[in-house]
Amino acid sequence: MIVGKVVGSVVATRKNERLLGSKFMIVEPLEKMSKKERIVAIDNVGAGIGEMVLVAKGSAARIGCDMENAPVDAAIVGIIDDSIGLND
């Protein structure tokens, strides 16, 4: 699981049928959490641009958003209200 900031959204009018009705957000992982670039994550918790979020990746993402049979690799599973130690 990584912590990141929502920096944008993605609109896809044509997509896999198992993803219909899903919202996609662009998440920039905190530098301390991951060296990777921005990722696209499915959002089932209603995160908005500028919010800090928890992102599950891989099979945990599919389980976390209750979409075990969908092509999901990253999912926003929580919105961070407060944190201790992230900015250390």
Describe this protein with a few key phrases.
single chain, 88 residues, mainly beta, OB fold (Dihydrolipoamide Acetyltransferase, E2P), five-stranded mixed beta barrel, 1 helix, 5 strands, 38% strand, globular
Radius of gyration: 13 Å
Which fold does the CATH topology refer to?
Answer: OB fold (Dihydrolipoamide Acetyltransferase, E2P)
Number of strands: 5
* Fourth CATH level, the homologous superfamily: EutN/Ccml
* N/C terminus separation: 19 Å
The total domain count is 1
Helix-strand topology string: EEEEHE
Question: Would you give an account of this structure?
Answer:
This protein is mostly beta strands and 88 residues long. The chain has one domain (2-79): OB fold (Dihydrolipoamide Acetyltransferase, E2P) (Beta Barrel), CATH 2.40.50.220. It is 7% helix and 38% strand. It has one helix at residues 59-64; strands spanning 2-10, 23-29, 39-43, 52-57, 74-79. A five-stranded mixed beta barrel has the order 1-2-3-5-4.
Question: Quick gist of this model?
Answer:
The protein has 88 residues and is mainly beta. The chain contains one helix and five strands; from the N terminus they run ββββαβ.
Task: Walk me through the topology.
Elements: E1 2-10, E2 23-29, E3 39-43, E4 52-57, H1 59-64, E5 74-79
